[in-house]
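Recall the central idea of this unit: under ordinary conditions, the amino acid sequence of a chain determines the structure it adopts. In this exercise we apply that idea directly, starting from the sequence alone.
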Amino acid sequence: MLKKEWRHFKRNRDLFVMSLPAIVYKLLLSYLPMLGLVIAFKQYRYDLGVFGSEWVGLKNFEFFFRSDTAFIVTRNTILYNLSFIVLTMVIALTLAILLNEVSRKWIKLHQTVLFLPYFLSWVVVGYVVLAFLDHKSGFINVTLGMFGEEAIKWYEQAKYWPVIIVITQLWKAVGFSTLIYYAGLLGIDSSYYEAAKIDGANKWQMIRKITIPLLTPLIVILFIVDVGKIFRADFGLFYFIPNDSSFLYGTTDVIDTYVYRSLRVVGDIGMSTAIGFYQSVVGFVLVLLANWIVKKINEDNALW
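Accordingly, the structure predicted from this sequence is:
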């Protein structure tokens, strides 16, 4: 067995050497910090350190599960992430197919316009949203005033925010996903489409019979990766866009913002580690489950 692995290493020695910096990077920044997970099971005290602090078992986890809003923030986290996964996939795939039909002359312009919001921080996006939704001088309320309608207090009415949050997330993130699908489209052999044209297939038939099936492995991989993050919300999106308005907590509060706000008051590092550990474990289980389901349906599309 060892001889076989050694022969494999010698045969691919150049690839292993090239990947060494990335392996060291992951070890130092991703795996070494995992030793700190022990804090989730301790009543951490700065003066005693990690090893001197008292063991408290699962008490740090009770902070979250016994809180009155645990169900609400868990529901919000899962439903928002599910909507992000499905809508981003559908819209990005559609845009990638449309990009593939655009003339090469304009492709760079379309790519830049789609990709630009991805580079903006959530703080900047928060000000952009504020420019639209501000009660007195926001673009939407000014427009409503021109038509004789009353201004809406967007940051005090929770019913509008599920739509606002989803639209904001899609505007920022869909360009990046579109480029991934577009790169996948470029990898499809053009002879498939030429053969389909000879057989008289129209655009829709080529998309349904060639593009979608050949992109399915990529779609499944991205789906499995996204499922692993379904318990971990984007803190910037849910904190800066609603402007941390207490009127909106019912529809905008997620696990990450709830823990941050709670620990800003309590200041217990053990509790924050426990919630982070809980989110990671659930995400890991969901990735395994999603991959297992995909493997049952079509083994070739599974991640491993």
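The mean pLDDT is 86.
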